Every structure is written in C-alpha cells, then in structure tokens.
C-alpha cells in the first residue's frame, strides 16, 4: 500500500492524504485555486477571514498539512497552530473591538464538521450578542466510573517522543 509519512513518523495511506487535499475548499485555497482574505501565513499555518462569518472578524486558522481531524494531525503542525492561535485571537480582538471570542474546532461529521480539513474558528463576541451561540447540556461525571475512565484515556496517550 502506498503511504506518506507524517512529521511524527506515523504512516498515512497516500490515497487518504490525496482525497483530503483534493476534496476540500481549504486545500483549494492552499493551492491558490480559490482566493481568500489572508490575515496570517507561515510555513505551517494559514489564517483567513471566513466567507460565512458568525460575526465581524470571524477568522479560520488551518494547518497546511492535510489532515481531516485533529487526531490525524502531526505534532509539528499541532504545535504550529498552538503557537499562532493566541496571536491571531489577540489581533482579531484588537481589530474588531470585540469584548470576547470563542475558538471552535470540530472533528467528524457527528461533531458538525463540514470541511474535512482541520480548522479552528476564531469567532469574536460582541455586547450585541453577535457571534457563536452555545447551548451546553452538561451532565455529571459519575465518581465511581471516573478513575477507570481517566486511566483508560491516560493509557492511550503515547509518551512524548521529543525530549526537552
């Protein structure tokens, strides 16, 4: 099977990578086939204004790496996103005069992901209520099941491959 190697060494089927890059509007933006209103770009990340904004200044931040969901993203691209998100969020706040903002990132169709290329929304919130509306139906963590669930999740986290 043909495959590509991500920066973290994991193999990804080549067909999977090609389908992600060929089918998304973000891939076409990255290739220059569709224009965008760029607000930031470096070797790993591109940020641009959303053409269907929830509020003025709604900005999308995407990795240049082809990955549908964040769990498929390399550590290098994830770190690059993490480094620039706060800077872009501060710029959006200053430029729009917004009092607050949401950062939204969905993974998979069941989580309402519409474009299958990792992306973060920086959505300014204004006193008028303009921005992302959220209804949060919180449950309660079962204290008897919590230790086993926490251990199960922790056991699935691979050790850090880079040493400081």
Descriptive overview:
The protein is an alpha+beta fold and 164 residues long. The protein has a single domain (3-136), classed as HIT-like (HIT family, subunit A), CATH 3.30.428. Helices cover 29% and strands 19% of the residues. It has helices at residues 14-23, 25-30, 75-96, 146-155, and strands spanning 3-5, 11-13, 38-41, 45-49, 59-63, 100-104, 120-125. The strands form 2 sheets. The chain has a 5-stranded antiparallel beta sheet, with helices on one face. β3 and β4 form a beta hairpin. The longest helix has 22 residues, at 75-96. The radius of gyration is 18 Å and the shape is globular. 22% of the residues are buried.
Jot down its keywords.
164 residues; alpha+beta; HIT family, subunit A; two-stranded antiparallel sheet; 29% helix; 19% strand
Which regions have little confidence, pLDDT < 50, spanning 5+ residues? none
- Total strands: the figure is 7
The number of helices is 4
Order of helices and strands: EEHHEEEHEEH
- The CATH topology is given as HIT family, subunit A
CATH architecture term:
2-Layer Sandwich
Mean pLDDT: 87
- Range of helix content: 25-40%
Shape: globular
Please state the structural category.
alpha+beta
What percentage of amino acids are in beta strands? 15-25%
């Amino acid at each position: 099977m043909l495959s590509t190697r991500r920066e973290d060494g994991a193999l990804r089927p080549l067909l999977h990578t090609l389908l992600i890059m060929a089918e998304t509007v973000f891939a076409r933006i990255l290739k220059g086939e569709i224009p965008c209103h760029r607000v930031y770009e470096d070797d790993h990340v591109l940020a641009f204004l959303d053409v269907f904004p929830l509020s003025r200044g709604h900005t999308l931040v995407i990795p240049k790496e082809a990955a549908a969901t964040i769990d498929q993203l390399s550590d290098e691209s994830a770190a690059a996103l993490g480094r620039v998100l706060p800077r872009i969020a501060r710029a959006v706040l200053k430029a729009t005069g917004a009092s607050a903002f949401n950062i939204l990132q969905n993974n998979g169709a069941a989580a309402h992901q519409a474009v299958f290329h990792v992306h973060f929304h920086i959505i300014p919130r204004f006193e008028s209520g303009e921005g992302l509306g959220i209804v949060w139906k919180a449950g309660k963590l079962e204290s008897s099941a919590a230790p086993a669930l926490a251990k199960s999740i922790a056991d699935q986290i691979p050790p850090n491959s880079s040493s400081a």
